[in-house]
Every structure is written in C-alpha cells, then in structure tokens.
Amino acid sequence: MSRKRIVILTGAGMSAESGISTFRDNDGLWKKHRFEDLATPHAWAMNPELVMEFYNARRKQLFEVKPNAGHFVLVKLEEKYDVQIITQNVDDLHERSGSSNVLHLHGELKKVRSTVDESLVYELDRWELKMGDKCEKGSQLRPHIVWFGEAVPMIVPAAEIAATADIFIVIGTSMVVYPAAGLIGYAPHDIPKYYIDPKASHVGGISNLKVIQKKAGEGVPELVEELL
Ligand code: APR
Hints:
SIR2/SIRT2 'Small Domain'; globular; 2 domains; 6-stranded parallel sheet; 29% helix; alpha/beta; 3-stranded antiparallel sheet; binds adenosine-5-diphosphoribose; single chain
C-alpha cells in the first residue's frame, strides 16, 4: 500500500519562532520597508545597491538562526507519509531541519542568478552579494528571489503536487499573496485540510478545513501527533 501524501504550504509564520521576521505582522518586514522600494524589478533597476543590501541583511541572518520545533516535527511525518513541502519562504530552514522534499515558490536567499540568463543559478557560499559579482556570461548577479510583478514558475509543479494530496496543511501564511494563496484550491475537495496560524485569516470556499489558531511551535507538533 503506497504511503499517503501530505502536502504542506508554509509561509513566514513557519520561521517566526526561529527569529525571522514575517512580512505583515505588526513588527513585520513590510512595516519597516515598503516592498515596492525593495522587492520589485523596478527597485532593482533604480537602486540595485539598496535591494542588494536588503537581501544581504536577510541572508546574513540565516547564518545566525536555526530551524524551530515546527520544522523538526514536520520531518517526523516522513516516517509514515510522503511529505511534500511547498514553501513561500526563501530561508533554508526546512532543508536544514531535514525535510526531504522542499519546493520554493518565491526563490531562495542562498541562491543568486544571472541577469541575462535566468537558467544560470548559483549557490552563494557567503552572505554578501556585491555589485560587480558577475555570472559566467559577464552579467551582474541578482538575488534568486521572485519579486512582486515577476512570474512564479514553480506554481505549475506546486499545483500538480497539491492536486495529489491526501492531506493538505497550511502553516503560518496570511494567504494574501497569489498564486501561492490559491494552491489550497487545487487540493481535492474531499480531503482533510488544516490551517495552523495564530491569526488565521478567513479562507473562503474551502471544504473540510480545520483552522488551528496556534503558533507553529505548538500547533504543528499537536497535529503531527494526531496524524502519526
Ligand atoms: N506560528 C505560525 N504562524 C505565525 C507565527 C507563528 N509563530 N507568527 C506569525 N504567524 C502568521 C501570521 O499570523 C500571518 O498569518 O504568519 C503569517 C505571516 O504572514 P505574512 O507576513 O503575510 O507572510 P507570508 O504569508 O509568508 O507572505 C507571503 O508575501 O511578502 C511576500 O514573497 C513574500 O513569501 C512572502 C509572501
């Protein structure tokens, strides 16, 4: 009997208890910066140093934080289930906690890419990307991050994975950024779905959804225990 598949969509709240700021909470990143000034192709064109600095600071923090209880307990699910993680996060905490299947919808902080050939993606082995750091074709390297207004190429495989879920879990996302927020709509209607978030926003039109108004560190271990 093949193992049941659990598909898990995570957002910034998954990493909050690791000390990484979310975007829209009251101390969130977008409260300190206007994302139009930072996370857009226009911002990169007008002021690449500022954009570079923003991502360098977030990348530097990655070397100082570690996965939290919520990340680690998701790995335990792999004892019994085929677990597919689809994350909006650009940190590497799911990988570092040992999750086997992690799909990044919005890119990865520890990767950079060519500005003339987006298929040229490189691992950055240090925290700082600088103006003048070039790809093998001689173009300036940029953060391998999906900015507002840019395509989300990984949404296609993500939607295909969501459609094969036997259980769908959403953890720590405000569900306001599409297409990521629409993924739950691809999950089969009749399967059990869970949404773990202390301020879970209303998700309309989704059947079999159980909302757990708790932080990841508390809500995820409880749900995993139930599923195991
Ligand atoms: N545990 C679980 N959830 C939490 C916790 C916690 N400890 N702390 C906060 N949250 C929840 C908040 O209640 C909120 O619903 O995490 C969610 C964070 O929402 P956002 O800050 O909007 O982050 P996210 O949903 O991941 O943003 C989506 O927007 O800025 C873009 O590309 C960026 O991937 C990001 C996307």
